[in-house]
Records
---
Amino acid sequence: MSVQACAELVHKGDPDRFRATMAAPPPARRVLFPLYAYNLEVARAPWAASEPMIAEMRLQFWRDVAEEIGQGKPPRAHEVVEPLADILRPEDAPLLDAIAAARRWDIYRDAFEDEAHFDSYIDATSGNLIWAAARALGAPAEAEPVIRDLAWGAGVANFLRAVPELEARGRVPLLDGRPEGVTRLANRALNRFEKGLTQQTVVPKPARPALYAAWLTTPILRQAQKAPTRVASGALAVSPFSSRLRLLRPVFLGTLR
């Protein structure tokens, strides 16, 4: 029932990851839904209150959860924490703690310091989530660089889609919001994603459902690359028909392309 509660949270709050997870085999869903529910709760925490201290406390709750799982302590009685503790190895708990730590940027109105700061934010949020999911599904250490390349591209695609909302909330999401700056970022992300795609077979088949959630990355990044003004206007989107077709590829062929 706790896994079902996680699935319901993801269905309501993160529909793209929900669809990707429902395309995975049932054993993988039992792993992915708790991880995605944790990620959703952490992503929501900075926006749950206008007072930064309260938002910090909410994030600290999830950092404490990760620390306790890492120490092998009995899980808290919580609909997300209990199933998460069932599927997460203690040695992988720091990956989730790093996600929550990176989300502190969302609380405040400061811009990213520089490109390295932005890059590390994407790697900590998207990279750690997808790597933790792949690890929980049995991915070996040698697959990490490939998975992080794919995750970085996917993370930038998701971030670009969130730009209008972030700006509406008073944040400064992009280091260079000019069309040429957006194009440059989309190029970087697409290059890393393409690099990962060429090596994705290093990820063993049981772990590949961790990559399913990146199925819209290429069309989103290409739109941002070719028509960067679509980022600010919130017009980055894939039609439902095209989206369904793209999700069939990893499900039936085992690869994102």
Note: DSSP finds twelve helices and no strands in the chain.
---
Amino acid sequence: MSTAQWALVTGASSGLGVEYARSLARSGHNLVLVARNRDRLESLAGSIVQEFSVKCEVLLADLHKSRDVARVAKRLRDSAQPIRVLINNAGYGIPGHLDESDASLERDHLTIHITAPLELTKAALPGMLERGEGRVVFVSSVAGYLARGSYSAHKAWGLTMARSLNATYKSRGVHVSAVAPGFTRTEFHQRMKMDITMFPSFLWLRAPYVVERSLKAVEAGRAVTIPSFRYKSLVAIAAVLPKKWHQAGD
């Protein structure tokens, strides 16, 4: 693989974003790291350059803000240093039901999971199609197969988009894939201040494993991958259970 190939990772400062960055660097990609935390991004970039001898750009951006999304989109359209791989990873959860949640938080939640990845993917696709090769990943969740509030709804969007775009563009060399992990050991749940002690250890996945399965799936042209047999089984069971058993309600 030529070291001239570039990958762009959103939400690169923690969790799955860090693992995507390291895995792509290991495979020879130069990196554009996108997130809001400058210190974390620069620390990660420094360690990746030292360990893997690839180029690494830090692009500080808050993807809740349209002007920052536009800056990242501009980088994705750069034909001088074309992006081969786009990882739409940035995201988080918010607590509470819709009737009591903060409206501005819900708007931000929608933006980070749908509006921003939609705009970034739209920016990346023309160049990828012109070059006849590209990879786009949406980080979704098994929650996208359930009906558990706005987070589930947003993650279901990623699954649907990946299926649709992959069917549309795969024959032209551009693979689009969504990864739908279950509970994964990152900072995600701590940031939500969510009590995770109730969930047994066998349900938890390791971030490097999730990323490995995701990158293999998108290279193989698979529209959706659910890492681990345990979560494939849970999704299959949920599909045949009465909907009221896994839908949010009173």
Note: The radius of gyration is 18 Å.
---
Amino acid sequence: MLRVLTLSSLFPDASRPNFGVFVERQTLGLAAHPGVDLRLVAPLGLPPWPLSRRGHYAPLAALPRCEDWKGVETWRPRFLNLPGTGGRFHAAMLTRALTPLLARIRGEFPFDVIDASFFFPDGPAAVALGRRFGVPVSIKARGADVHHWGRAPATAAQVIAAGQAADGILAVSQAMKTDITALGIPVERIRVHHTGVDLTRFAPRDQRAAKTALGIDGPLVVSVGALIPRKGHDIVIDAVAALPGVQLRIAGEGPERPRLAAQIARLGVGERVKLLGSVAHAELPPLLAAADVMALASSSEGLANAWVEALASGTPIVIPDAGGAAEVVTTPDAGRIAVRSAPAFTAAIGELLAAPPPRDTVRETAAGFTWEANTAALYDHLSGLVAARAQSSG
């Protein structure tokens, strides 16, 4: 039996059910593997009191420190998040908070490997803890955890050092693997580990009925992602504004909402373009199945789950050449890779609306992205690290 301690600061909780749902799905898949016994540590970074009891931190501070989360024993320790430091001390504070907890867990659960599911601050902390407890460490690179923290002056050196010291690295795409290698992390330790999609939930439906349920008649473009500058929702709004009669629905929440709402009002497209706010992951399948196109103009990605979920729903995508885009849009039926500009997105969306590919054919392009394959590859990776450690120490 492989005993896995999964560490992830990106994980859902009762106050944030959509936060890191793809990490949750990967973790639950591994936990269900017949050869795995798993415990989860999902730390929460909180500022010093009294800030930790105010605003959006208050619900986090109220979460239980240990709970059963969908059948998995889950610990939610707190670590000190010092505002205004650019994350410089995140990993050190996380290591400090986790050391006594992992010592206690290890007394009852002698874990064989630490599986860090997010690169920062989880990765550097996992490496330090792996050394302390004498177990191998794997770190997964997903996108912003490397593209941001791996370049930020306060944290870049920590990210690189963790990658060089880890026993194994997982990357969500070949493009992500290339980016990590460019940081000086040994390529032979990096394995591409694609995300999965639930092909039973994300599947083509009666599109007309799905649109009717949304109160929409006519072409529909959907965008899924947090309302942050990196996601490029402003580009998609401008693109759809130039396509008369086309509707746009944006699922996501974030600090860009006031600016995007002002843009919609300025363009006079409030009847066609709607900000839906946060949409529960369980409610995404009918929205994606109703869409004629899913468009997301991200400036950087690893390999976005929304891309694959749209394809599984039979909906082609329009995305820039970011991250693993070329690993997903492998045929014209899957959609278009467009320059990250409103005119280019207008043209690409217009092409797909004018000549929509068969939805079953679109779905076939997502067939290789399954959670079963994700779990099998992760088990193989982690068990391989444990075997290699045993061989080197034996």
Note: The CA atoms of residues 60 and 171 lie 29 Å apart.
---
Amino acid sequence: MKFTVYQGSRQGPRPYNQDRLAYSYSKDALMMAIADGMGGHRHGEVAAQLAIKMLTDAFQKQATPELSNPNRFLNEQITEIHESIDEIRRNNGLMEAPRTTLVAAIIQRDMVYIAHVGDSRLYHFRNKELIYRTQDHSVVQMLLRKGQIKKEDMLEHPDRHKIYNCLGGDKPPQIELSGKRKMMDGDILLLCTDGLWTAMTDSEIGQSLHYGTVNVSAARLLDKAEALGKQDGDNISLLAIQWGDPQNGEEPVSTGTMPLGATTTIMNPVIHEPTMRLDNGVEAVPDLSEDEMEKAIADIQAAIHKTTGGK
């Protein structure tokens, strides 16, 4: 396999960053994932971190060097993530569990397999044209599908931020699987959170993403979305890959010489901005530290119990 990749995340005007993202690859398979912790629920960043860590850990164990059934892997692992988040709630006596969206993709044998829960998206571009995009599990998308609103009404609708499907919710998630899609040399996949796509149209995203090499254009895309978001924006995260040999001569990631049992995982580091104060003067609570996050995941969220005071 050969591919060029870029991942990045911006806190934006929010008091802390609840997005998490990573990619992992073996000799013959590549997995990418983005999770957006839901800010209306306590510790969404923990649910997002748990989702990314469980998914990459499982990929490292099972991609030897490829997965026997990528769709089954995605369905089983995402279901297990939801159950683990619910276990957090039960073990800590929480009124509700932390919640997160998730979009993930696996490429092997030049085919891509996609799964998503919520409104984090995947875009598939070929020859600068958008040939596929996941459909949000959101209230406005459902209303559009039923013909009750028009597309131009979606970004201004009062329920535009509401989703009906997530990990950690009261009901088991509806995991949407795309089946499998052909990947061709030069194809670009973009995974992103709603902080990106609410700031720009699909056409604007596609144009920006094809302006230069993917690792340069994706970074500029983050800059543009952050500037457009201003004070009303969200955390903004994306993960972009261009499949095959780049035409500009840039050196891609090549897995040809990797040992059969080896895997590499690159998690996007979370940059902690200085503590912010909200409009009411209350100091914003920052993300848990990485050490606290790991401990929370390892022993069913001891950090959550500590942060909530045992309630």
Note: Confidence is low (pLDDT under 50) at residues 273-288, 300-311.
